[in-house]
């Protein structure tokens, strides 16, 4: 398989917001509603990105404190700017080696990160370690294997039609564990119990083709990373292939949806 990770450029917060952040902000409050936890808890978020879930926690869950970590300084800078709240603290951190004390948090969560971590069970084991007994561990990832992120699937269908070698870069090939069975197994192997899984689906409607296409040119993420590295003629061929295949409403908008799989578990 090709070295797919070379296309995973995740430093530019503004670019990520244009590509995925606007949609992850829709998933976050629905995930928290599903968790259905009381106010006043101590939260830890692993891999906060640009702060979509962080902002939703502060807005909807009235936490006592929120510590949010990420490995990207660019993402942390954007998250801090997005959420200037005294209860929230943002720090550089490693998902596989959390610095928080054992049993120090009531809730430990992660959004759209697990599949990018090399040792996923290690990350989940660390999340379990930091949560107190009886606390909650929760996370969600996009449904890549099921084609749940329709705008990504459309991009890769067009890309692989023009370049069969791109097949090894697609998220469904790279992240086969992002299914209910795969995620439940990962959680249980990390020592989590009372594991539950649910789908969360949101609309991803693009105003027009340029609204759809521009984020793929910014380089933040696997598909944009691939697109940014194409030479100009190849990029133009891909653009025109997509222009001719995407669905359109009467007003020129592009109506698609995105589905995530959410997991929650109780720490014994």
Q: Could you please describe the fold and organization of this structure?
A:
Helices cover 40% and strands 23% of the residues. The chain is an alpha/beta fold and 268 residues long. Strands 3-2-1-4-5-7-6 form a seven-stranded mixed sheet. The model is unreliable at 4-11 (pLDDT under 50). The protein has ten helices and seven strands.
Chart the SSEs and their pairings.
Layout: H1 13-35, E1 42-46, H2 52-61, E2 65-70, H3 73-82, E3 88-92, E4 105-111, H4 120-130, E5 131-142, H5 150-162, H6 171-174, H7 180-189, E6 193-206, H8 209-213, H9 222-229, H10 232-243, E7 254-266
Parallel strand pairs: 1-2, 1-4, 2-3, 4-5
Antiparallel strand pairs: 5-7, 6-7
Question: How much beta, percentage-wise?
Answer: 15-25%
The whole-angstrom Rg is 18 Å
> What is the mean predicted local confidence, pLDDT?
93
At CATH level 3, the topology is: Rossmann fold
Helix/strand/pairing class, anyone? alpha/beta
Number of domains: 1
Q: Globular, elongated, flat, extended or rod-shaped: what is the shape? A: globular
CATH superfamily: Vaccinia Virus protein VP39
**Can you count the helices?**
10
Work out the helicity level: 25-40%
- Which series of helices and strands comes N to C? HEHEHEEHEHHHEHHHE
Distance N to C terminus: 39 Å
Spatially, the strands of the biggest sheet line up as 3-2-1-4-5-7-6
CATH architecture: 3-Layer(aba) Sandwich
- Strand elements, count: 7
Largest sheet: 7 strands, mixed
Low-confidence parts: 4-11
Instruction: Provide the CATH top-level class.
Output: Alpha Beta
């Amino acid at each position: 398989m090709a070295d797919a990770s070379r296309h995973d450029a995740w430093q530019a917060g503004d670019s990520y917001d244009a590509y995925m952040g606007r949609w992850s902000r829709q998933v976050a409050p629905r995930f928290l509603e599903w968790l259905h936890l009381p106010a006043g808890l101590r939260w830890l978020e692993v891999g906060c990105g640009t702060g979509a879930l962080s902002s939703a926690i502060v807005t909807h869950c009235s936490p006592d404190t929120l510590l949010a970590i990420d490995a990207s300084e660019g993402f942390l800078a954007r998250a801090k700017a997005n959420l200037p709240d005294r209860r929230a603290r943002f720090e550089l951190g490693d998902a596989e080696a959390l610095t928080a004390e054992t049993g120090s948090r009531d809730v430990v969560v992660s959004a759209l990160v697990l599949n990018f971590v090399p040792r996923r069970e290690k990350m989940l084991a660390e999340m379990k370690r930091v949560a107190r007994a009886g606390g909650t561990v929760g996370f969600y990832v996009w449904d890549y294997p099921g084609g749940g992120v329709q705008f990504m699937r459309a991009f890769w269908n067009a890309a692989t039609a023009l370049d069969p070698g791109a097949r090894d870069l697609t998220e469904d090939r790279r992240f086969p564990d992002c299914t209910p069975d795969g995620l439940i197994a990962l959680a249980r192997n990390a020592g989590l119990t009372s594991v539950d899984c649910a789908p969360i689906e949101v609309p991803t409607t693009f105003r027009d083709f340029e609204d759809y296409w521009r984020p793929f040119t910014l380089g933040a993420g696997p598909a944009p990373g691939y697109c940014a590295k194409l030479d100009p003629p190849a990029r133009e061929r891909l653009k025109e292939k997509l222009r001719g295949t995407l669905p359109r409403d009467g007003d020129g908008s592009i109506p698609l949806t995105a589905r995530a799989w959410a997991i929650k578990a109780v720490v014994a």
